[in-house]
Amino acid sequence: MSFLKPRLGDIPFYCDIDELLYVGGTATNLVKQVKRCLHEISESHNKIYLAYSGGMDSAFTLRVLSETKIDNIIPCYGVFNSNGVSTGCKDTDRAMRYANKLGYEPKVVPIEIDKKVIDEAWEITEKYDITCHVTAIREVWRLRFDEHFIMSDSSFCDLSTWSGPHKEQDRFHITNSNFLPLENATDVFGMDRDVFCSFISPFFLKRAKIDLSPFDNSVHYGYPFKPNGFDGKLWKWLLYLEAYPDMAEVFFKFPTMYNDESNRPYSEFINFQRKINQEKAFGWFRVKGTELNENTFSDLIINKEIN
Predict the structure, then answer these.
(1) Is the pLDDT of residue 166 over 60?
(2) Domains recognised in the chain with CATH numbers
(3) Which end of the chain is least crowded, N or C, by CB within 10 Å?
(4) CB distance 263 to 82 below 8 Å
């Protein structure tokens, strides 16, 4: 379920939106809209898993959930192992502590990244034209379940300033890694226009004004402190922290998966995804047929009174 209509495959791809957007990005409105969506999802399924990574997005969704009386949404945490050793999850303990503090004991489900998993990940990337190895392997993990899943993915310029050769650092980028056919999952951030627009804050519209001139964009500074990556997420994090200052406990997110050269199928899969034409990984939003950019956003993002 999503009001976003991605057209993957083309370079660049477009994400079509049929309605005008509006500036709805206040902490109060964001909480209100996500809470509404969680209630709607909970009423449609008996048992639901919330994909919880301990990052700011899924932690925010869990934090909103903690203020409801919903009892059929269970946080689920994936551990991705290579040769029996976690490929990431440096912040697992922190993620668990935060969930425990909110009154949750996440279901921890490990998966061994063996040849079978990688073969399935190849099929996903080829079938859906997705270029992110993390997205593909995470999807293999998710499809091990019969239950409905809640994801916390779709938002503006997610990851677009973190990596890749794309030279136009446009603030309205989105990546194809956000879009997979979610037959048994719902992306809570892209359910409808109101929740999506609750991320469009005045700060987001001014984000391109941040001066990163001391930093060389070609240098990989490493996660999670790469300056451009910080810039790419800060507008969203500010809303989260304004709503829930205690989310400072899970500020930033270390990578979910690191490469493991000793695991040949896994390493070859990652290296291939990194070498293919990354231009197709990045796309733009098109609102009512017009590309959303610096010159058009004043016409396509309208003023609307938020109750």
Answers:
(1) no
(2) 5-302 (3.40.50)
(3) C
(4) yes
